[in-house]
Amino acid sequence: MKIQDIQTIQELLSTPKKIAIIPHRSPDGDAMGSTLGLYHFLLKNNQYPVVISPNEFPDFLAWMPGSETVKVFEKDKKKCTNLLEEAELIFTLDFNALHRVGEMEKVLEKLVVPFVMIDHHQSPDDYAAVTYSDTNFGSTCEMLYHFIAALGKTADIDKTIGTCIYTGILTDSGSFRFPKTTGTTHRIIADLIDLGVENSEIPALLYDNSSYDRLQLLGRALQNMKILMEHKTTYTTLTQQELDHFNYIKGDTEGIVNYGLSIKGIVFTAIFIENAEEKIIKISLRSQGDFDVNLFAREHFNGGGHRNAAGGKSEASMEETVMKFENLVSKLKT
After folding, report:
1. pTM
2. 26: left (phi over 0), alpha (psi -120 to 50) or beta
3. 285: which strand partners?
């Protein structure tokens, strides 16, 4: 972080304030880990924080410390709007463009209080008084650790804050497998374990609590998988009918996209998930090596993200979306 930004943050936090902390819509482990980690840090520093999520977070993250305090905008728009309008400072974590919060964007655009962005995605928008943005980090949670350290507050990181940070690093690093996992990442993890973070229990809470329906849904997604071996690509689909058949709840499709990369020789994979209520096809993209799915998502599916992990959407039908994808892949050099 720049010295000037550190000084600005220190000044903003020099007196108690009502602070709103916001993750992106459909928050994942890194979004929830960073917002809840910051929430507990600010509580320790005599602030009055509240985490406001644009919509519900997945059930498999409900064990996280402080998750019961999270307000959900879509469930109570009036109360959440009041909290946002009363806030004296806004933190936005794990996203860098206000459209990533859905309907809440209309409220945020009208606020005149300072914003602080902490994020690791490409091409940040210019809405924050302080922008801590760095694509070299594999997770916003790792950035939060450095953010707290830059404020000279490393000693404030306890088991509770550490548990939140550990969760985000674990999930966004693909259990420490992705390229942006560095020696520094592992040194932070070691520090967190020394603080008492349960490094053997957290993966079980995240990954070993599937319902029978969720496993059946995974089975259907694997059955639907198509392999375009000549293009080193796989993709799979899940229709709304299939989601309903297996009693889908938020979070059930988390991680399914990664299975495509487990096939020998595959460098690019995608999953297309129908959302009948929003009338869109949600798209998740993953890659290995130098193939840039962020660029692919931005150019073709109104999305973005990282080089090896990105997302997008299509307003066409499932059949039309898949046809477009196959046509694009046929022209790629993967």
Report:
1. 0.88
2. left
3. 270, 310
Q: Which two tokens stand for residue 223?
A: 């059955």
The 10s digit of each residue's pLDDT in 231-263 is: 999 999 999 999 999 999 888 998 899 999 999
CATH number of this structure's domain 212-330: 3.10.310.30
Domain ranges of the chain: 3-206, 212-330
Beta bridge partners of 91: 21, 116
Tens of pLDDT, residues 179-233: 899 999 999 999 999 999 999 999 999 988 788 999 999 999 999 999 999 999 9
Residue 333 CB: number of other CB atoms within 10 A?
6
The CA-to-CA distance between both ends of the chain, in Å, stands at 36
Q: Residue 4, Cβ neighbours under 10 Å: how many?
A: 9
Sheet holding 226-228, edge to edge: 226-228, 233-238, 268-275, 280-287, 309-314, 304-305
Query: How far apart, in whole angstroms, are the C-alpha atoms of residue 285 and residue 311?
Result: 6
Strands 233-238 and 268-275: parallel
Contact (Cβ atoms closer than 8 angstroms) between residue 225 and residue 260: yes
Please tell me the distance from the alpha carbon of residue 22 to that of residue 93, in angstroms, as a whole number: 6
Domain 3-206 in CATH 3.90.1640.10: yes
| Amino acid, res. 157 | I
Pair of tokens at residue 126: 């210019």
Beta bridge partners of 89: 19
Contact 187/169 with Cβ under 8 angstroms? no
